[in-house]
């Protein structure tokens, strides 16, 4: 027990020192809180995304996966920091001291980022309390309506939770759509006819509504709507119960809450790594870390920034990009003229203008991954992070993975494309009254990357369960060099697919 | 303070949701049991009662980007990776996902990279059997349905009584009773007389356990003078009612034995794949019968134009050339029953697999009849047609000779099976075209309700 107290004292000392260094470097942070928690709780937070969240089997699956990974990893410096004010971060009790310090330093980077990056500007900073409350409500729904009914709804909601669009710069969009407690009684609810003295309140029959809509020739939505989830909640022919709308709102709100994080994964991790490296060297210089502890840190830092042969490491790509920006802007390697230059000598220019720090701080404020990578990923960044594209080939009984591409601009092209819309295929609601039968028509805005068909089919089933009428998805299939537009339909019983002709770029 | 230790009360939510997920996996196994049970990893497991089977993980479906199609010969799937590599460098290999009976790749990583969401789940064979039993409505362990034989298995002491024959005296128990009673007497004496325990013990020892006499002496003014020479050790004095006798009983054991006579055509036309179906079937047959009977034996009869007893390995893995006379196998089975497995003591399950070719089907039918006359519990014939069937089909002869009725289960990818029309004819035929047919075949053979 007293050892634990000593450990905490040491961490408090480290925290104080880091705070001093952080202030000197000009990072601008929310007050920071660290909770030292058991490994099990840490893994739980990581799989539930929040310290307390609603129940769902998928969290159980992820929790089990995390646990297995943890048991086999031999201690990766896990870090969880939540976007809130004050910023809340967690340290795994079992981690050795140098790792705790590394995580703390890293967390201050995230803290600064989440406070200052404009995409975080309007996020709710009270999600922890809100999630804990909704967890209670959802549990209650399980008791009242059965676990299966709640689970089916969550399954469906999670299937489309990435298809939200909230204007991150507008207050109203971030606020929950409707507070379930304040929602007025639904017109057409079982009790509405009690008050319906003159028939004004009675909802019009569906046919009447449709007829009306047709007369008005008002297309719903007027423009293709990327907020599929919001659209379904508002316009679904399925009359959602209040509790169902609440469940959908909870999931939608969380998805909105995490949207800035999804949009800035590479930047956020890159920024945090950029700073933890600096802070840790400083702590070592100040004699705050012993050489042995510093060595230990180096070992783990290398693991954080390790080259994953089969996947993109956002920490690595992010930090290499920020370092490159800093270097170039210190040396004066920027500006339209420099950009246009084909000369290899342009990388050697050093005008010593010292604008590096200023630039990285500016970029951390204004950018998100998609634009960040598009603007700042260059030949050097690709080389520094040793990126390649690999493919797989079947060779008899063996599937072989080989490097297919090392050309930097091809790689950049793929990376940028896969970060467009945070890696979520752009699918918009094209029509909520397709064929005049209130069927749902979704359209995938194809940009060279096709959808995984099995996933698309299963997701369509979920959409159907929310919409209650046939759902259509227009997308593109690629066979060899030909791109074909297709329309995939699920009508509650089965799938059908029609060919819409070849795809022509608009 | 900005750093604090938090002792979270451990919410059960994590564990609860793990259990919810586990249940979903079980449900998925149950749903796909026909595929699961024919997994090679189960059949070929070396030891132990758990198996790892690759099951598709329970996925969270969303609209996601797919693998790239085309792009080079047999190419598929791409991803980004880090490392100092040149074009064409091999960065990893794994068993091909589409290869027959192949599990997921070792080392996980490439599997993740290529988006294959396989999970290996450890499953108890027992649990699988339980699932199948629910589904198959297996004749559970209903005693009267099982032929049991009662065999004396020696003698044993079953009980203890106060009266009996001297040779059956339970000395240890009698001695223990006496010791306990004496100790009780000593403390009772001490309580009544207020004298120390040692003195009471001495008194009791002097009168060889006589409580009354010891009590009288202790009540005299100076008993210690009388007891100087006595030991104060606790001695048991055995009395008549301390004695215990053991009761001997003859043990009778109910033996429930089953023998599986596994017969198979091993001529050249029976490929490894064909034999695999038979193997899978026999594996589960043995597992099921183990549930019914204490002792399950399996005898392997391989035949071409002649039949012989072989071991398991030879049965499943070695092929021979030669003609095909199925009758030879049925004849050998009959002989085995006569010599080793009298039907009064054994439950007999005979099953024969072939690809339908037989040089003398008429003779085979005679031999099958002979086998049926031995009163076996069940006889089954499985015709394996993994390729398009041509030429002769022995199933036809079964159909005609025993007037079997033919059924097709469309649910199980057109699985065909044949049943005897009389209840007392325990004969069934199945046609196995693929792995998925193993499970319905088991159903035909084992479910009480014969129709699949």
Question: Care to describe what's here?
Answer:
The complex is a heterodimer of chains A (506) and B (452). With 506 residues, chain A is an alpha+beta fold. Chain A is built from 19 helices and ten strands. Among the domains of chain A are: 157 residues, no CATH class; 107 residues, no CATH class; 78 residues, no CATH class. In chain A, 51% of the residues lie in helices and 14% in strands. Chain B is built from 15 helices and 15 strands. In chain B, the strands form three sheets. An eight-stranded mixed β-sheet of chain B has the order 10-9-8-11-12-15-14-13, with helices on both faces. In chain B, strands 2-5 form a two-stranded antiparallel sheet. The relative contact order of chain B is 0.10. About 8% of the residues of chain B have low confidence. At the A-B interface, helix 1, strand 1, helix 2, helix 3 and helix 6 of A face strand 1, helix 1, strand 3, strand 4 and helix 4 of B.
Label this structure with key terms.
heterodimer; A: 506 residues; alpha+beta; 5-stranded mixed beta sheet; 3-stranded mixed beta sheet; 19 helices; globular; B: 452 residues; alpha/beta; Rossmann fold; 3 domains; 8-stranded mixed beta sheet; two-stranded antiparallel ribbon; elongated
* Gross geometry of chain A: globular
pLDDT < 50 runs, ≥5 residues of chain B: 69-75, 98-117, 138-146
What would the principal axes of the Cα set say about the shape of chain B?
Answer: elongated
**Widest β-sheet, arrangement of strands of chain B:** 10-9-8-11-12-15-14-13
| CATH homology-level superfamily of the largest domain in chain B | von Willebrand factor, type A domain
Element-level helix/strand string of chain A: HEHHEEHHHHHHHHHHHHHHEEHEEHEEE
Radius of gyration of chain A: 26 Å
Enumerate the strands of the largest sheet of chain A in spatial order, edge to edge or round the barrel.
6-7-8-9-10
In percent terms, what proportion of residues of chain A is strand? 5-15%
Number of domains of chain B: 3
User: Helix- and strand-based class of chain B?
Assistant: alpha/beta
Number of helices of chain B: 15
- For the secondary structure, the number of strands of chain A is 10
For the terminal residues of chain B, how far apart are their CA atoms?
A: 70 Å
Query: What Rg of chain B do the Cα atoms give?
Result: 36 Å
CATH class of the largest domain in chain B: Alpha Beta
Overall pLDDT metric of chain B: 78
The average pLDDT score of chain A comes to 87
């Amino acid at each position: 027990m007293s050892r634990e107290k000593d450990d905490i004292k040491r961490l408090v000392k480290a925290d104080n020192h880091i705070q001093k260094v952080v202030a000197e470097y000009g990072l601008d942070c929310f007050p920071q809180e660290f909770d030292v928690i058991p490994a099990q709780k840490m893994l739980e937070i990581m799989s539930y995304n929040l310290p307390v969240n609603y129940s769902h089997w998928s969290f159980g699956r992820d929790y089990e996966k995390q646990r297995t990974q943890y048991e086999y990893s031999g201690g990766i410096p896990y870090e969880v920091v939540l976007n809130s004010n004050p910023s809340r971060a967690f340290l795994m009790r079992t981690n050795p001291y140098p790792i705790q310090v590394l995580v703390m330093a890293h967390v201050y980077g995230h803290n600064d980022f989440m406070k200052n990056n404009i995409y975080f500007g309007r996020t709710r900073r009270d999600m922890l309390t809100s999630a804990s409350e909704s967890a209670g409500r959802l549990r209650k729904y399980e008791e009242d309506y059965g676990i299966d009914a709640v689970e089916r709804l969550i399954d469906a909601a999670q299937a489309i939770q990435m298809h939200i669009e909230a204007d991150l710069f507008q207050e109203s969009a971030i606020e929950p759509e409707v507070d379930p407690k304040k929602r007025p009684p639904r017109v057409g609810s079982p009790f509405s006819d009690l008050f319906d003295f003159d028939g004004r309140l009675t909802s019009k029959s569906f046919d009447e509504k449709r007829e009306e809509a047709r007369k008005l020739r008002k297309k719903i939505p007027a423009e293709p709507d990327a907020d599929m989830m919001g659209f379904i909640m508002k316009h679904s022919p399925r009359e959602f119960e209040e509790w169902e709308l609440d469940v959908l709102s909870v999931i939608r709100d969380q998805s909105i809450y995490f949207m800035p994080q999804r949009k800035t994964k590479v930047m956020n991790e890159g920024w945090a790594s950029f700073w933890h490296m600096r802070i840790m060297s400083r702590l070592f210089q100040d004699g705050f870390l012993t050489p042995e502890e510093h060595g230990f840190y180096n070992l783990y830092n290398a693991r954080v920034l390790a080259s994953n042969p089969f996947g993109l490491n956002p920490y690595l790509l992010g930090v290499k990009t920020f370092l490159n920006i800093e270097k170039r802007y210190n040396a004066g390697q920027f500006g339209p003229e420099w950009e246009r230059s084909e000369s290899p000598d342009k990388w050697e220019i050093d005008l010593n203008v010292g604008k590096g720090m200023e630039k990285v701080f500016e970029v951390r404020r204004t950018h998100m991954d998609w634009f960040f990578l598009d603007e700042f990923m260059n030949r050097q960044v690709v080389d520094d992070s040793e990126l390649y594209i690999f493919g797989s080939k079947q060779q008899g009984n063996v599937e072989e993975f080989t490097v297919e591409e090392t050309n930097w601009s091809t790689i950049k092209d793929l990376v940028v494309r896969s970060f467009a819309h945070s890696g979520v295929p752009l699918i918009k609601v094209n029509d909520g009254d397709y064929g005049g039968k209130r069927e749902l028509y979704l359209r995938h805005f194809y940009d060279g990357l096709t959808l995984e068909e099995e996933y698309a089919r299963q997701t369509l089933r979920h959409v159907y369960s929310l919409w209650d009428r046939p759902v259509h998805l227009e997308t593109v299939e690629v066979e060899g060099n030909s791109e074909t537009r297709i329309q995939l339909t699920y009508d509650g019983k089965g799938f059908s697919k029609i060919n819409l002709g070849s795809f022509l770029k608009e | 303070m900005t750093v604090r230790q938090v002792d979270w009360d451990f919410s059960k939510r994590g564990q609860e949701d793990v259990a919810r997920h586990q249940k979903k996996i079980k449900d998925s196994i149950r749903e796909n049991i026909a595929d699961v049970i024919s997994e090679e990893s189960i059949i070929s497991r070396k030891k132990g009662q758990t198996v790892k089977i690759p099951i598709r993980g329970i996925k969270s479906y969303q609209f996601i980007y797919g693998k790239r199609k085309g792009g080079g010969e047999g190419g598929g799937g791409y991803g980004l990776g880090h490392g100092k590599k040149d074009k064409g460098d091999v960065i990893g290999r794994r068993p091909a996902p589409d290869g027959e009976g192949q599990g997921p790749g070792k080392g996980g990583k490439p599997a993740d990279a290529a988006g294959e969401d396989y999970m290996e789940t450890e499953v108890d064979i027992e649990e699988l059997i339980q699932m199948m039993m629910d589904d198959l409505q297996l004749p559970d362990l209903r005693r009267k349905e099982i032929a049991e034989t009662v065999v004396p298995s020696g003698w044993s002491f079953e009980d203890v009584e106060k009266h009996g024959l001297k040779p059956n005296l339970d000395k240890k128990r009698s001695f223990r009773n006496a010791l306990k009673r004496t100790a009780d007497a000593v403390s009772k004496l001490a309580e009544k007389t207020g004298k120390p325990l040692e003195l009471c013990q001495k008194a009791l020892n002097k009168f060889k356990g006589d409580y009354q006499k010891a009590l009288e002496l202790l009540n005299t003014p100076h008993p210690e003078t009388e007891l100087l020479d006595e030991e104060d050790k606790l001695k048991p004095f055995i009395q008549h009612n301390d004695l215990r006798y053991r009761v001997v009983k003859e043990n009778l054991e109910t033996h429930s034995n089953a023998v599986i006579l596994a017969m198979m055509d091993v001529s050249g036309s029976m490929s490894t794949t064909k034999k695999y179906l038979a193997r899978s079937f026999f594996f589960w047959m043995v597992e099921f019968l183990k549930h019914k009977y204490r002792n399950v034996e399996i005898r392997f009869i391989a035949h071409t134009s002649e039949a012989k007893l072989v071991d398991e390995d030879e049965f499943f893995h070695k092929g021979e050339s030669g003609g095909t006379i199925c009758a030879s196998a049925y004849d050998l089975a009959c002989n085995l029953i006569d010599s080793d497995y009298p039907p009064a003591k054994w439950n007999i399950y005979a099953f024969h697999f072939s690809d339908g070719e037989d040089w003398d089907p008429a003779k085979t039918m005679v031999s099958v009849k002979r086998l049926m006359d031995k009163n076996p519990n069940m006889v089954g014939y499985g015709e394996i047609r993994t390729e398009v069937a041509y030429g002769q089909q022995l199933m036809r002869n079964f159909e005609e000779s025993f007037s079997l009725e033919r059924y097709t289960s469309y649910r199980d990818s057109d699985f065909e099976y044949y049943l005897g029309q009389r209840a007392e004819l325990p004969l069934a035929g199945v046609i196995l075209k693929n792995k998925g047919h193993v499970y319905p075949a088991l159903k035909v053979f084992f479910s009480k309700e014969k129709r699949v």
